[in-house]
Design goal:
Layout: H1 14-24, H2 29-41, E1 44-45, H3 46-53, H4 57-70, E2 73-76, E3 82-85, H5 88-113, E4 124-127, H6 130-140, E5 147-152, H7 154-159, H8 161-169, E6 173-179, H9 182-192, E7 198-202, E8 207-211, E9 215-219, E10 230-233, H10 236-252, E11 254-258, E12 265-267, H11 270-282, E13 287-295, E14 301-314, E15 319-326, E16 329-334, E17 343-352
Parallel strand pairs: 5-6, 6-7, 16-17
Antiparallel strand pairs: 1-3, 2-3, 4-10, 5-8, 7-11, 8-9, 9-10, 12-17, 13-14, 13-17, 14-15, 15-16
């Protein structure tokens, strides 16, 4: 990002912070120093300002002309002419009003021309500013239709609060895994986000969002790592790796909130579907499965429906599939990475027999 951009914000002395803000408002370094000098010293003439800032008078006159044209300073006629700074709140309010109008017009234009080609919807995109990466991952939840996996620290979870609530209201199954919380932090999340149905606490992790097994984002949350880039992942194979890692952490994490979603349960995440089905089978529930996917041998599109005999989820060994009693016999339904199974599934609905 260019000098003075939001991505370059850093914590410094109060004066450094003020100069940084003024530069973000469009002032040069000299103009920012001049404006602060007038705030601090009161009305001054150009020669006096030149002496305070140890700058040549032609430079000072150019800066005064620019500040005056923007309305950031006021002039008092006389010999010599005096200058004073306007109230900083007026300066900021004026800028924000201009920025709001500019932002609205610019967004309308950028959205009107933003039509990515289909071939661009694959691959791994790098986002080099961590805060932008977090907000980009948050936006993924707006498009979630079936299920979503969210992992992060308490600050990131709170950033996504409204979007998680909106997704759950739309019928999306959202699983939230946080870390570095402790009992107190977990309690804060539950109190602030009472709409959560699935929340667990892990020992460690990264910042991750995965939606509908089609889009993922990851940001390494470990300060010891030299790379702080975020990654937007549109490659299905890599998205599957993210979701598999999430499930591996989920099954061993501490349960905080575990409310049931209504039947039929809908999943694109194969292993999460297996995990939930396995728990219900252990409760002696009679379950049926509807799944869409592909025949492993032929690649032909297929729809599967039948009674779930077993939900095999052996993470260390890598076995993960449903055993389903269908009209054409017992079939094993795995995920899209299925090899030994008969069907590679990409969408799953689980419901109780008789419902």
């Amino acid at each position: 990002m260019s000098e003075g951009a939001i991505g370059d914000i850093s914590v410094g002395s109060p004066r450094e912070n003020a100069i940084q803000l003024l530069r973000m408002l469009g002032l040069t370094g000299l103009e920012a120093e001049l404006y602060l000098t007038l705030l601090e010293k009161g009305p001054l003439s150009a020669p006096e300002i030149s002496d305070y800032l140890v700058r040549h008078r032609p430079q000072i006159h150019v800066a005064l002309t620019r500040l005056s044209s923007k309305g950031y300073i006021e002039e008092l006629g006389g010999r010599p002419k005096k200058y004073r700074a306007v109230d900083p709140q007026i300066l900021v309010n004026t800028f924000m009003k201009e920025l709001d109008g500019l932002t609205r017009r610019a967004l309308e234009y950028m959205k009107s021309i933003s039509k990515p080609a289909l071939e661009e919807r694959f691959g791994v995109w790098i986002i080099r500013e961590p805060e932008v990466a977090k907000n980009r991952m948050a936006e993924m939840l707006d498009g979630a239709k079936v299920d979503a996996l969210v992992m992060g620290d308490i600050k990131f979870i709170h950033l996504l609060s409204d979007k998680i609530e909106s997704a759950i209201k739309r019928g999306v199954s959202v699983y939230v895994l946080s870390y570095a919380l402790g009992e107190r932090g977990a309690r804060f999340i539950v109190e602030d986000m009472p709409f959560l149905k699935k929340l667990r606490v892990a020992i460690s992790g990264d910042i991750v969002v995965v939606v509908d097994s089609s889009l993922g984002g990851v940001l390494k949350a470990r300060p010891t790592l030299p790379m702080r880039h975020g990654f937007l992942i549109e490659e299905r194979t890599l998205v599957d790796y993210l979701s598999h890692d999430f499930v591996n952490r989920w099954v061993s994490a501490k349960v905080v909130v575990d409310e049931k979603y209504d039947f039929p349960l809908k999943f694109t995440f194969h292993r999460m579907a297996l995990y939930e089905a396995r728990r219900m089978l252990l409760e002696d529930k009679k379950l049926r499965l509807k799944a869409t996917g592909y025949e492993v041998d032929t690649g032909a599109r297929v729809n599967i429906e039948g009674r779930i005999l077993d939900a095999v989820l052996d993470l260390p060994a890598g076995y993960a599939h449903f055993k389903v009693d269908t009209d054409s016999g017992v079939l094993r339904v795995g995920g899209l990475d299925a090899i030994v199974e008969e069907v590679a599934g990409e969408y799953f609905e689980i419901y109780e027999e008789g419902s």
